[in-house]
Amino acid sequence: MSPQTRQSHLDPRAVGLLLLCCLLWGINQVAAKAALTEIAPLWQAGLRSLVAGLLVWAWSAWRGIRLFERDGSFGGGLLAGLLFAGEFACIFVGLQYTSASRMVVFIYLAPFVVALGMPWIARGEALSARQWMGLVLAFGAMAFAFAEGFSAPGTPMQWWGDALGVAAAVLWGGTTLAIRATRLGAAPAEKTLLYQLGISALALCAAAVFAGEALPLQWSPRLVGLFGFQAVVVTFASYLVWFWLVRHYAATKLSVFTLSTPLFGLLAGALLLGEGISARLVGALAALAVGIVLVNRR
Q1: Is the pTM of this model over 0.70?
Q2: Phi, psi (5° rounding) for residue 128?
Q3: What is the pLDDT of residues 119-175, one digit of tens each?
Q4: Can you say whether the dihedral through the CA atoms of 10, 16, 20, 22 is positive or negative?
Q5: In 3D, which of 283, 232, 266 has the Cα closest to residue 58?
């Protein structure tokens, strides 16, 4: 199937792959926050991209996929890579100030950023009045949840972590739009991912050095496990699947469906980190779910 014949609706295969990715992405925020006790945020994000990028390169070489041919995708790849780097800088730094449960909810504003931007790229993905209602409801839910960060007891800077989560969502949505709006959208999924991993590895590791972050002197089995899960399972395997889906299915439908991830993230944060889940946050998540229905209905 070529990018020009993307399916406008999700078939069972796409739904199954998306659910698996969403489960992994929900747990990913928990793994990242847990690892922050042993590795600084920018180094964690940069080294994760570096390891996953090497895996993508090895995978592509094994499958005979040509990654370095001139196809006019460099400009789009550079833009997507920088947006990708900014997204994960916001997430990993933000996790120092807010809970994984809250972070995973805020970053999943990204689908609504995509929904707002796609009509400028593909007229066939313009929003109806019902879909606009879904967007307004989702943004209202986020404002409702965000306000809690200003008055949370014992966490005076939680609002800052929440704000970085919102910024990450905007950058993630921008990455998806950059892929669809440039020649990168016609490139192999492996090349699309390698652009983002390679450029973000350089940018994030440079930012870590500039910020004076120290690398861990020892890597405990716990840190190796947490880091390996993020780099190999999430950043390499699940993102490869995601970018394949972006090439073959409507971006708006894919993005709004991924809002099932916050549910997995809330459960993982509560079960694995013992994070409290407020009624306000649950209410915001419920409103996001309604937004999914309104935006994603045929």
Answers
A1: yes
A2: -85, 175
A3: 777 666 667 777 778 777 777 776 777 666 566 655 678 889 989 999 999 999 999
A4: positive
A5: 232
